[in-house]
Design a protein that fits this description.
The chain contains 8 helices and 11 strands. With about 220 residues, the protein is of the alpha/beta class. The structure holds calcium ion.
Length: about 220
Amino acid sequence: MRVLLVEDDELLGSAVQAGLEQSGFTVDWLRDGRQASLALHSDEPDLLVLDLGLPGKDGLTVLNELRARQSSLPVLILTARDTVEERITGLDTGADDYLVKPFDLGELNARLRAISRRRNGRGTSLIYCGDLVFDPVAHCISIDGREIQLHAKENAILEALLQRPGLPLSRERLEQILYGWGEGVESNAVEVHIHHLRRKLGKARILTIRGVGYMIPKP
Ligand code: CA
């Protein structure tokens, strides 16, 4: 899952980026509100973690503009502004969650998982698809009770495909999910991960749709 982190504090930003990447998120990090607005216009991530006190443009303005154009992108505000009034304003402006600094990285992780679950209409983080039970938090899938461990990038691909069984995702979209802006993408990276996933799950579990991309069939 791709997270856009907007945070102007270098130390905090790099800690959050490292912590989220360790949990399997792909994190793009911007330090400026105006740049964030521009980035959100051209390429929406799966989740936005937004500081409020930002150079260029205040985080609340970024959020306001996002909601004004009907975007339902899940947003977590991460800020030192900790009064009740500020929290209410943040949530009423359209944030899905509000976390006050200093915070615990584990809690940030859990809150991001919670808002992405809700967005996908699920009550738990487990994803069920036919005889598959996928646990994206534990990086584990079970088929008929047989548990299979997944590497972080395999986990990210499977999570994206299982969010929408029966609908294909392009290789380009999967590359975006796997890699942040700064990272070089190896040209056959997606194919390699799909190959490993098929070996683990069985060949027929992930279909190649010629000229379109990859798909997990609807159960
Ligand atoms: Ca700040």
